[in-house]
Amino acid sequence: SHSPSSVIIVGAGVSGISAAKVLAENGIHDLLILEASDRIGGRIRKETFGGVSVELGAGWIAGVGGKESNPVWELAAKSGLRTFFSDYSNARYNIYDRSGKIFPSGIATDSYQKAVDSAIQNLRNQEAESGGDHSSTSKVTEPPSTPIELAIDFILHDFEMAEVEPISTFTEFGEREYLVADERGYEYLLYKMAEDFLHTSEGRILDNRLKLNQVVRGIQQSRSGVRVVTEDGRFYEANYVVLSVSIGVLQSDFISFNPPLPRWKSEAITKCEVMVYTKIFLQFPYKFWPGCPEKEFFIYAHDRRGYYTFWQHMESAYPGSNILVVTLTNGESKRVEAQPDTDTLREAMVVLRDMFGPDIPDAIDILVPRWWNNRFQRGSYSNYPIISNPQVFYNIKAPVGRIFFTGEHTSERFNGYVHGAYLAGIETSRAVLEEMRKERETEDGSQTQL
Ligand code: FAD
Question: Fewer CB within 10 Å: N-end or C-end of the chain?
């Protein structure tokens, strides 16, 4: 029904947009972007809540101030995005027990150091085991068990604090993290990027090469080209496809491939872990928590790991907004996604009354994002096991015929981050351009032979 394009990009998140931009810059103008939802941005998404813009997905530019410059930080600087430095180091001095007492700093520091040491030891043990090194006897470490130990364990592992393992984002781009708090949203960066190659007017994209509400359900390929089939029965043809849907969507088999993906591919896809990360926003009639910057992050220690553990107030970014954010992950995320928000609000209020006493007011509004149940996401981001076979990663990233894979899960150094997705888009496009060049060469070659 449409004339074939050179390249179809499936998904208009940051990787899809950066991939398209690089193609356009290299003279590929007959591209098509098919996006399932009614907007660009994907996991970068703002919503108005309590009168301000809150970020349901990516909220920070992580990795700033190091030896290499983070390209997303550069984009943010260029477009004047409003950001705030986040100092997590204080969080460990704001750990509340269930009776509302803050753990003395000595105890907090000791527990923190113990948790870091034990995490590092565990990692060494795992490394020794997977390397078949039985000469070094692995030390047994006690698993965290008290509420404060469980809370710190949660912070260390579910927030990827860099103390335990070297994370490229922090070792290469720097240890600083900046919270994005801009009325235009983090997604403003994507609109700025899109402006360079798509026709826009007053911040709206009017280019008909971007097709929203096009839910891709099938990808068929032959020796000569690719056909992409959408849920409403349309199809689009191209020479190549750049597939930027999340690892969760790939695992869900929402898109069928004909011929089916080879085994090495589908097996690798199942091996990548999907993290669920949920930021719950609560608005109050007035502020009852200490609003100073040293208390921006605070921790609730409960005997259930990850139970409303990590809190943040928004006074620095939006003074007077009276908003608190609590972060849940994995099992707890899935649990609250499945229940009515009124239940979640009630649970959060019990936790807050433990910390701040019985007289605090009820929240007047709550916002619970559902990344797990969103069929265009199926989770928040990829997490490759620390000790994993690098082949799994290479197989997830490798193209299959004319289908090229991109997205944060295909970034070797920066998976799970916005800059990972951004750089992956660029890298995948370069691979497609290289493939096009090779194909042209063989065509030219066979013509000369004739
Ligand atoms: P996506 O943004 O998911 O883009 C893929 C697009 O494909 C989506 O728009 C989707 O709608 C579309 N799609 C899916 N299926 C189909 C289909 N069948 N047909 C057509 N289109 C389809 N990163 C940071 O750097 N800092 C943070 O603080 C941070 N916090 C995060 C917090 C949360 C809650 C989440 C969810 C993520 C966070 N991340 C953070 C990670 C970051 O958001 C992602 O790494 C990045 O945005 C992923 O971009 P992407 O292009 O790979 O994927």
Answer: C
